[in-house]
Amino acid sequence: MKTALVTGGAHRIGQQICRTLHQAGFNLIIHYNASNIAAQTLADEFNLTRADSAIITQADISQTKDIDQLCQSIDQLDVLVNNASVFYPTPIANINTSDYQKIMNTNLMGPLFLSTALADQLTSSQGCIVNIVDIHGDRPLRHHTIYNISKAAIAMMTKTLAKELAPNIRVNGVSPGSILWPENDAELNQNQKQSMLDKIALNKQGSADDIANTVLFLAQSNYITGQIIAVDGGRTLNQ
Ligand SMILES: NC(=O)c1ccc[n+]([C@@H]2O[C@H](COP(=O)([O-])OP(=O)(O)OC[C@H]3O[C@@H](n4cnc5c(N)ncnc54)[C@H](OP(=O)(O)O)[C@@H]3O)[C@@H](O)[C@H]2O)c1
Questions:
Q1: Model's pTM, two decimal places?
Q2: Which CATH number is correct for 3-238, 3.40.50.300, 3.80.30.20, 3.40.50.620, 3.40.50.720?
Q3: By CB distance 3.0 to 4.6 Å, which of 82, 137, 206, 212 could disulfide with 111?
């Protein structure tokens, strides 16, 4: 039985990645930061379907002590999915170190140190890492300077770790386009949504399923490493 750790697994895309991997036979370590109830509900659902197939674990991945504690609690691991992230605008006129630290520590430092701290377990299993990137790590999204930089960096992290951790651990990425509308601080109005949809070749948003299926594909593709697959409905054709 293989085990996958999905960060930010309680909601939205992370939750669908957990569902898809669980359905494919993986046991799940569902990581969360604040969403304890949603994570536990998901684990309960999985354990009803298959006994002892899911546990939950809490960590703020922007804090190294939390990362260390999380990694020390894991003995066996086949797949690490670095999905958790923060996304909100950082207009250049108001750019500040507090947002810089929050976004870079969550979107880059967390995934990097989780990957290195779990390298022994992943080496033992000849496992893999799948990083959730963003097409805006390549082509910047206006007013999101720090987020864009964080995603460009995790794209490079994917390639550099693929080299450093070979031949024992494969490292790949999935780069979503527009999948689920942002919530809270990053919410868009109707005009902004329509203007984004107009630029997508397939003329619609993707689904969390589209991302999760690509994660599963990479988890099962034993001769692919160092690759980042854009799942964006052709959005990058029009950028
Ligand atoms: N949504 C899209 O259309 C889209 C487009 C391009 C790329 N992406 C990428 O796809 C991934 C998933 O997107 P999403 O929209 O589903 O993500 P999301 O809802 O914005 O965030 C996913 C989870 O990240 C966790 N998280 C945030 N800060 C954390 C911290 N300091 N420590 C630990 N966990 C933390 C949260 O967990 P808790 O709820 O437990 O606090 C949250 O549920 C992200 O990497 C995102 O950048 C998404």
A1: 0.98
A2: 3.40.50.720
A3: 82
